[in-house]
Request: fold
Amino acid sequence: MPRTRTVARATAHDSALAQQIGARIRDARKRVGLTQQQLAGDRYTKAYVSALETGIARPSMVALAYLAERLSLPPSHFLDEQSPAWNRLAVDMTLASGDWQAAADGYAALLEETLDDQARAEILRGRAEALARLDNGKEAVVAAAEAARLFGTLGRISDEALARYWLAYGLYLSDQEADARSLLTSLLERVRAGLKVEPDFEMRLLMALAAVEGRRGDHARSLSYLETARGLSDDLDDRRRAMFLFNLAITYHETGDTEAAIRTGTQGLALLRSAGATFESAQIENTLAMAYLAIGNTDRAAELAAGARAEFERAGDDRYLSAVFDTEAQVALARNTPTEAARMARRAIELARATGNRTVELTAMLTEARALRASGDLAGAEARYAETADLARSGRSASRTREVLREWAALRAAQDDHRGAYELTSEALAVK
Reply:
């Protein structure tokens, strides 16, 4: 499924809050004597700062932290933490910044308050997205289904459609591809029939359908959806088109077309660099590193991963940094340096745990298990596979659980523990 970031449709109250944040940013900027261009620095643009100050745009927590540092103020200066509505906006921005676990926890806390149906629906939809990002398909389905029902009752059809998108995402994560495909196809038909939604929603549906068809093994249909989505991207500005290409590259990679992933990712990287979006460029660099690794070009993979790591270290973003360390661990493993691979994977695990990034934590644990096996530490590999399997089981991702169990079974079979291998293989076959 595409890794797009979405922002909930702003209510009138949300817009008022965004304007108050913008006013505080403007006042602080003027007090220190900076122009909008100077405040933007080398990460953002004057136009973006202007949009924030006028309340047209809402800052992510990453952006707010960056601007607050340049203004020598804590991010909390711009948020009124005593107001529940401000807390809601802060959680929305946490979601937009990519801190999925913190957002999921924040939405759960907000749901404990007394809410009207509209507020509850909006919070449930945000929670559904956060849970889907965390690969928690079953709970995402529960939250998204209730959000869709409430939006439907309220007559908010466009919002209901977006909630159903996250419902489909949850079904996909729960290995219910047929149901996800049916729901996404229905949404696509409604959009093409005139349903008014966000400008890039049709593209996201097409990319999601491509991911579903890729998992089902119908790569021809998957690529057909991708090419249709590409044709819709021309109307986007450079930054949004670059992020579309980034998501397209990921989907190409998932369908097995690594060369197309590299080509498309490189195009997106060039657009982001020309727009001065260094942070987003680093995300694409890490994705490209994995694509180059898949075709055996470890030198290029290492070069791209190093560039991404430097940017995330500069930004102080440990969540994304954990993913890069895992990429570098996989590169080291491909270069037959398992001791280095295990060290890098351990660093990735530490950062992933510190930032609540369960997806990277699981991937890095699996990388470390492979590295330990390659280095001859079979006892260490056995222990790490056991821990990884426990985490995979708790994560409710059936496909990832099966992957871990099958690799663990292969390790046992290589040690002539055929009974143990049989038990793990049987468990993998039973996972649903």
In short: Residues 5-13 have pLDDT under 50 and may be disordered. The longest helix spans residues 12-32. The radius of gyration is 22 Å. DSSP finds 22 helices and no strands in the chain.
